[in-house]
Automatic annotation (TrEMBL):
The lineage of its organism: Bacteria, Pseudomonadati, Bacteroidota, Bacteroidia, Bacteroidales. It comes from Tannerella sp. oral taxon BU063 isolate Cell 6/7/9. Belongs to the Rv0495c family. This is Uncharacterized protein.
């Protein structure tokens, strides 16, 4: 583990390789799991503001869930998360003809229709940030649906922290990310010396 400011970063974030392989996983991280995407303070409001731009692109069952409970709900742990459809799909998912899942919010952002890309927990995935009383834990979540991303990351030699450069900077800042890069270089040098 490495400490940077008030964060404790798992070595997996530095040492594990990762590069999303949408052609293999088909966007499973948007449709698998026990609840919706975790939301930070203010993100539910951002979702509500972006909703009119993506409304017509959402499936009817997703629109019905949003009509009934809104864009978010409190999960079993009491955390605010995005609403889901049929116990699994995020309400903001869209499906391409080949069955690949895409985020309607991200598409609208990339087309310049919104200023909010998507929740930071989605942008950071597979990194998960857990807030404790005195520090934040930064861990790499590993599960079978992301195995193709680990394989591609290994083939290309891309560490998870490099793949996630932009969202990590959005979450923690440039100075924090620079410190993470320095820590990664130190860890690499130590590994070479062994």
């Amino acid at each position: 583990m490495i400490q940077i400011e008030d964060t404790i970063v798992s070595l997996d974030v530095i040492e594990r390789r990762f590069m999303c392989d949408l052609s293999q996983c088909r966007g499973a991280c948007c449709i698998e799991g026990e609840s919706g995407a975790p939301l930070e303070e203010g993100e539910a409001e951002q979702l509500r503001l972006a909703l009119p731009e993506v409304w017509d692109e959402l499936k009817e069952d997703a629109r019905e869930v949003i009509r009934q409970q809104g864009v978010s709900y409190l999960d079993a742990d009491g955390d605010e998360v995005t609403s889901i459809v049929n116990g699994r799909d995020c309400v903001f998912t869209r499906y391409a003809p080949d069955g690949t899942c895409h985020c309607a919010l991200e598409q609208a952002f990339r087309e310049g229709r919104t200023t909010f890309m998507k929740p930071i927990s989605c942008r950071l995935y597979p990194v998960r940030v857990t807030q404790y009383r005195r520090f934040r834990a930064v861990n790499l979540h590993r599960w079978e649906v992301c195995r193709p991303a680990e394989i591609l990351g290994e083939q290309l030699g891309i560490p998870a922290y490099r793949f996630l450069r932009e969202p990590l900077i959005s979450k923690f800042g440039t100075e924090w990310y620079t410190a993470l890069e320095a820590a990664a270089e130190m860890v690499a040098r130590q590994s070479e010396q062994k």
